[in-house]
Each structure stands twice: as C-alpha cells, then as structure tokens.
Amino acid sequence: MKLIVGLGNPGRKYDQTRHNIGFVVVDKVASLVSASPSKVKFEGLLAEALISGEKAALLWPQTYMNASGQSVRKALDFYKLEAKDVLVVCDDLNLPCGKIRLKANGSAGGQKGLADTIRHLQTDEFARLKIGIGRPPEGWEVTDYVLGRFSSTENEAIEDAATVAARAAICWATDGATIAMNRHNAEEKKETKTKRTNGTSKKPTTEPKRP
Questions:
Q1: Which residues are known binding-site members for tRNA?
Q2: Mind telling me which residues the site (Discriminates between blocked and unblocked aminoacyl-tRNA) is annotated on (predicted)?
Q3: What domains lie within the chain, and their CATH numbers?
C-alpha cells in the first residue's frame, strides 16, 4: 500500500494559494484514479483508491502546514506503512515556477510542512514531489508570497505542472521512486532543453502581480 500526501492549509482563505499546490496535485490524483469520496480521518481528509491494482490512500492534512507531520504519522501508523511507502507533495521556493522535482529522500530544504513530517516520522527516507513556485519578488515577505495566489501569467504553467506532478505521483505508486524519477525528472529536463532550442525559455519581462 502507498500513501500520497498533499501539503497545504485548510479553509477557503488559503484555497489556490501557492502554499497549497500540494492539495491541488493530490486533488488531481484523486480525479485520475477515481478515488473514493474524502472523509475526515487522521486530522485530515482521506480518500482511498486502487492504482493499477495497488491500494493507495490520499491524504490532505488539515492541521495547517507547519503541523502536517502529525497527520502523516497517524496515517502511517494506522496502515502500518514504512516511510518508503510515503510520497509527500509540496511547494518549493527554490524551483522556478511550474518546475517539478521528484526525490526519493532528502532534507526539508526550508519547507516547513516537510520539516514537520521529517520530525514526526523521525526520518527523511520518504519520497517527496516538489512543485516550484519561484522566489518572491524583491521587497516581498516570504510569508505574504507563499500565502498569495498565482498571477495570471503563472496560472498556465502551474496548471500544467500540477497535471504532470499528479501523473508522476501515480507512477511512483505503481512503478516505484527510481522509475518515476528517471521518467518524470528526465521529461522535465528534456522539455527545458527543447524550449531553449526553440528560443522560448526567456525570463518573463514582468514580475508576478501581488495578490
């Protein structure tokens, strides 16, 4: 069995904010695999599904980002899973907006929900799928930026990235971390190379609008 966790903050106030891209991706996974309706469990919203015959649970912690780990820990214990059976999906300030990166393990890299998950699981040996949201423009506070919504110029890239990330999460669940990383991280590099060859990788001339 596999556990796919999307990190974010609960409530309409935070809906579709940069920090909630993990929720968005797991929503897409749920749609693609026809997951059962979500129910309240493990201090989060939980749905179950079969992914190519493999049992999977989808979890949206409702503890707020900085306390995500306690929800993940409860689900892990209930299903009697190991850390390697967990994939955490979250935003990443250190990746350009719309870029994705799947890793089998590693540090939190400053992502507080990821850090809390590492603290509660007492290991960083679980997979994580990061979706880039870019760095805040000069003069912005990081908190204001991550809790803001994507600009109109970012929306298309984020929508595409969320779909690709959802497919990468499904690949992880069915084929494992190594195959998923080789396939989806390689596709990301190939796409970037193609854009450069076609001369379409120029930096945007305008900064994202402040929400």
A1: 14, 64, 66
A2: 9
A3: 2-197 (3.40.50.1470)
